[in-house]
Amino acid sequence: MNSKGTLYIVATPIGNLQDITLRALEVLRTVHTIVCEDTRVTSVLLNKFDIKKPLIPLNEFNEEQVVYGILKQLETQDVALVSDAGTPLISDPGFRLVNSARKNGIAVIPIPGPSALIAALSASGLPTDKFSFLGFLSKSKTKNLKLLEQYQKLETTVILYESPHRILPTLEVIAEVFGDIEITIARELTKIYEEIITNTASSFIERYKNAPPKGEIVVLFSTKH
Ligand code: SAM
User: Fold this and answer.
1) CATH of 116-222 given 3.40.50.1580, 3.10.105.10, 3.30.950.10, 3.40.140.80
2) Candidates 12, 37, 217, 220: which one to mutate for ligand 1, based on the most atoms within 8 Å of Cβ?
């Protein structure tokens, strides 16, 4: 394929819209089309910066079907990929698109910016020399036990994404594998109710049993003891 277009992977804010980079704005203003997760969410960002572009929704359910059309468009036009928040492909859709674009000789250029895992890690006070990002844990406790047990042998900071309604089982499975270790919870980063707190697994479990946390959560802990 003689590709003339470029696929830009554009990171967007994880809460505070002022975290958009100058380069991200420039790219979003110059590409022909923006591929996004949820058109309503991306429209809020684009309206804020007065950017009007055709939007193509791409999500975990339709990615396979829409990739071909986007590759066709990339033969002649620049396209940007964004997700609802943070860096696309990081626990977000876009893998098939980037993989196919690269296989088809299309230039893929990252426009780096916010990502919740790096923001949380940088402010956690935990070792940063080696870290393992495990994304969202599974709904299966057996799978989670198996996965986390593999990290008992490693010296690393473990980073997980979590939602308020899954935080309790996640803390319980961490405590089952690693004991009552210290955990850092980074919640609502860059937003009004931002909170980064470190406490034992049992204290968090007790606290959240009574009042589940609200908002978006990153869970971090070190396997070094
Ligand atoms: N692509 C995004 C990134 O680069 O961070 C992550 C998308 S993933 C679908 C959403 C998860 O990221 C949330 O459930 C939460 O675990 C984490 N997250 C996103 N924004 C956050 C924030 N402002 N504060 C804390 N965690 C956040």
Assistant:
1) 3.30.950.10
2) 217
